[in-house]
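Workshop exercise sheet. Pairs work together: one partner reads the sequence aloud, the other fills in the structure field after running the prediction. Swap roles for the next sheet.
Pair: D.N. / O.F.
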Amino acid sequence: MTNVKRIAAALGASAFVLFGAASCATGEREQPRPPSGAPAHPRAAPAAPVLSARAYFDRATAIDLFQLRAANIAVQRGGPRARNFAIESKRQHNAIAAQFNFAGRYLNMLPSRVLPAAYQTILTELLNAPDFDRAYLGREAALCAQASRLHGDYARHGQSHTLRPVAKFAVNAVASECRLLGT
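Structure field:
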C-alpha cells in the first residue's frame, strides 16, 4: 500500500470516529423512521409556524418600542405600583433592545423607530384612560403573555442562530416582568 493510500485510509477512519463522537456528544442520533403513512409523533400537536428572522425581529422590536414608550407615560402619569413596574419594564426592555440592536447590525437589520398603528392606538388609549394604572397594568399583563410566547417560540424553533440567543435572553427578561405583575 502506498503512503498516499495509507494517509487517505487513516483520514477516513479519523473522520468517521470524529463524526460519530460529535453526534453522540450533541445528542444527534438518527431516529428510526415510522412506517410510511404513519405520523412521526401521533400525539404531538402541530408545530406553530416558524417566523422568519425578519418577522421575529420586527415584531419583537415593536413590542420593545411600545413597552419603552408606555413606561415613559406610566412614570409620569401612574400611581406608585404602575411607576415601579414601569421603571423595571424600562430596565428590561432597554436591555432587550440593546441585544436586538447588536444582533440586528450583524444581520443587517435595524429596528424601526416608528410604532405600528396598533401599538400607537394602544398608547393613545392609555393616555386617555380615566383609570390609568388599571389600563396600563392590564395591558402589560396581556402583552407579557404575548411577548413570552413570541420569544419562547423563537428561542426554541427560530431559524436564525444569531437571534435565538437574543430570544432566550428576552424570555428571561419578560419572565421577570410577568413575576412583577403576578402573571
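Discussion prompt: The longest helix spans residues 80-107. What would you look at next?
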